Amino acid sequence: NYSASLQHTPTLYHSIKVELGHNAKSQTHRAAMETEATDPEHTTVEIPLDPLEQEALRVQQVWEECSRDPHKACPQSKYERYDVPVDHYEGDRATELKLSSFRRPHMRGLHCAWISFFLAFMIWFAPAPLLKEIQDTLDLTKQQVWESSITNDCTAIFTRVIMGPVCDNYGARMPMAIVLVLASIPTAMVGLVNSSKGLSLIRFFIGIAGSSFVMSQFWPSRMFSREISGTANGIVGGWGNLGGAAAQLLMGRILLPAFKKFYDGDAEKSWRLICVFPASLAFLWGLIMPFLSDDAPMGNYKEMKKNGSMDRIFFTTALKSGATKNTWILFIQYASCFGVELVMNNATVLYYNYKFDLTTEQASTYGFIYGSMNIFARGLGGYFSDKLNLQYGMRGRLWLHTILLVCEGILIIAFSKAESLPGAVITMCIFSIFTQAAEGAIFGVVPYVTKLYTGAVAGFVGSVVYGLGFRSLEYNQAFLMMGCIVISSSLLSVFIDIPCHAGLFWGEDNHLVIQARERHAARQAGAATTVANSEANDEDGNGERDSHGDRESLELAPITEENSTHRDSSNREPAQLQSQERSNETEEEATDEA
Questions:
Q1: pLDDT reading at 59 higher than 80
Q2: Residue 34 and residue 37: Cα distance in Å, rounded?
Q3: Cα distances (Å, whole numbers) of residue 419 to 414, 481, 524, 590
Q4: Are strands 4-8 and 43-48 parallel, antiparallel or unpaired?
Q5: How crowded is the C-beta side of 318, counted as CA atoms within 13 Å?
Q6: pLDDT tens per residue across span 139-172
Q7: Does 43 have pLDDT greater than 60?
Q8: What is the pTM of this model?
């Protein structure tokens, strides 16, 4: 029985003054009483602390501050405070998005992720709007053109599966930079192509840029809590996918006509030069970006492994753990939305050239319109997935992406039947919205498949190719086939079975999952109350905030779903562990007395 007042320097505790009573039991306390006692009731002694005890007390104080302040960084973090509120039980992942902020680590990571993915997507599909000009110059057949598109996607399949475990081991920052630098080199060399084999080979190496998708989805999953991961992943994926639309507009509608005019209508000289421009942008950003952001909220993986704030994950373990039944189902379903988008990035200009006899410049405009739906559609899919999760749990997420897939498939079939240009464009825009919303909704589910190996799961789910059908079939038949596959894939949602979560028709959420949702809802309610109080105080001319009340409203609950299985006790709050130990000692003493 003692009460302690800590005497400390600004950095470490050096001693602790302990007020001892007659019932003190330890030998240290009794010896102190025998030598220093001056009061029959109690005495105060000063006990020196060794460095380990000093550090333990410092860490305890930081955790106590974290429990009161959601912006405070945990002891293992390289930062003192964050710009957004965080969940300390989820590795300081942010629980709120602040898109207007560019501050490290959370929002800087989100913005670096989508900008990097935007540039990677731009160079990945930089040759796509030029395929008609390349076909005419090299005298290629339709099959040869689509072979180059197939090789472009095949590289992305292989590298995505590899990049998933790489992200689990090394984070998303450095792999993203390396991919941008490597993929920009063959993009700049497109102008050297002189045959169909050369085109397929150069696009094979450009396909490395497709693996950037894994990093772009792993990064926000590392920075933001799972309750808002759908929105965060949707924003990064949607704004990054705009790079495909930008490639259509920049290459086909702006640079190609400008260079044609400069070279007096010489289309060959024009397409051979203009790919250097997007390649240069991606190359420079790949060199700069690693110095601008972090791998995780608490810092970079290299430092985190050294200070013990994260475990080392073996490549083969991550690869095997990511390949689950749920992963393969999501792989097929994501192939039915993101795969459709890849096909449209390659096929839009060619389809409008073939179907409505438009020029490359005119057809590129419609390709840009298709891709521009990413500005809002994918983010909306993730946002509604998060909202349904708060109300209905995982069942809400599954129903959303299932319905979106069905609607997408129906609209693709309708697009294949459109005979007029206005009808085709309108139908294309609507099915583009459903396609990209389905992408965002599916990646609202991915972080729940396995928290420890999110990168590996993202790598499998991102792999897809549809080009074989378009190589062999007429365009109308290929679109009809694609629509039927999309509708069929939606039925697989019935078999998704994530532990501790409800399924599409059966099962219930675990009580720990419900607690996590309720805690997130409480944070949102607390933040709304804080804003309302602040506005009321401003109106009354009183700018002071009741910080104690704000902190109480945002106080963390003691446990989440993942804590029960994956968190080592050394990472839990020391104050809670000591409280639990004291409770156990009290129970043991009561048992002895009985």
A1: no
A2: 6
A3: 10, 18, 49, 84
A4: unpaired
A5: 26
A6: 988 888 888 888 887 888 788 878 878 888 888 9
A7: no
A8: 0.69
